[in-house]
Amino acid sequence: DVKVTQSSRYLVKRTGEKVFLECVQDMDHENMFWYRQDPGLGLRLIYFSYDVKMKEKGDIPEGYSVSREKKERFSLILESASTNQTSMYLCASSQSGGALPDTQYFGPGTRLTVL
Amino acid sequence: DQQVKQNSPSLSVQEGRISILNCDYTNSMFDYFLWYKKYPAEGPTFLISISSIKDKNEDGRFTVFLNKSAKHLSLHIVPSQPGDSAVYFCAASHLPSGNTPLVFGKGTRLSVIA
Questions:
Q1: What are the counts of helices (DSSP H) followed by strands (DSSP E) for chain A?
Q2: What pLDDT does residue A95 have?
Q3: Could you point out which of A67, B26, B88, B109 has its C-alpha 20 to 30 Å from the C-alpha of B18?
Q4: Is A70 exposed, middle or buried (0-12, 13-18, 19+ CB in 10 A)?
Q5: Contact between chains at A103 and B44 (C-beta distance less than 8 A)
Q6: Nearest CA to A58 among A104, A27, A111, A7?
Q7: Alpha carbon B68 to chain centroid, angstroms
Q8: CA-nearest residue of chain B to A47?
Q9: Does A4 touch chain B (CB under 8 A)?
Q10: Beta carbons of A40 and B106 less than 8 Å apart
Q11: What is the pLDDT of residue A21?
């Protein structure tokens, strides 16, 4: 079974703090993704990565950065957290090619509250 | 501009009846479609997919239908069970995409009433 884990289920931070959200997958997937989910807005892609040290902007990259130093790990960084970044953050991974290419497998999510 | 649209934010169905969730897309390059199910405070889980070479794919109680000419797909759940109550997301991509992310709809909240 594919397993995607996220470092925290719930996180509370203060405005201006630097926040790190970690994601690890154990299926040797090439692709990893960060989304945020907000009511009425669905899943919005923040950043994704095809390979180690590669990153691509998604639909809403402003205020975020990412790091992928190892294939299994993809980190999302909020350089200076703001209240409008309060959200559910979801990490996902997928393989390139194979029987179900592009099928993304999600972690359990991190509910981040910025006060 | 939304490329994948789920026009019904919510749907209520009686237990044992059929649930039909709809999804429309605008990008004719899409040729692979997926449905995900999401419970509160959990990540989405992959449910079923279909490629554009098919018009139907079935897995147990779940069937996805694809109408390419109408750019429309639907997920049928028969019979609906209370445990099916969740938010369902439709997603699309085009193969062979390699590294193109999925495009998600905004989701439909299904409530199955016992």
A1: 0, 11
A2: 83
A3: B26
A4: exposed
A5: no
A6: A104
A7: 15
A8: B101
A9: yes
A10: yes
A11: 97
Query: Chain B residue closest to A55 (CA)?
Result: B99
Contact A102 B97 (CB under 8 A): yes
Kindly state whether A38 is in contact with chain B, defined as any CB-CB distance less than 8 angstroms: no
| Tokens 């953050």, located at residue | A89
Instruction: Write down the mean pLDDT value for chain B.
Output: 92
Specify the pLDDT at position A1.
Answer: 67
Mean pLDDT, to the nearest integer, of B30-59?
93
Helix, strand, coil percentages (3-state) for chain A, rounded to 5, are: 5, 50, 45
Q: Cα separation of B94 and A29, whole Å?
A: 19
Instruction: Indicate the pLDDT class of residue A101, thresholds 50, 70 and 90.
Output: low
Q: Alpha-carbon distance B61 to B73, whole Å?
A: 17
Q: What are the Cα distances from residue A91, in Å, to A53, B23, B27, B37, B100?
A: 17, 24, 25, 15, 16
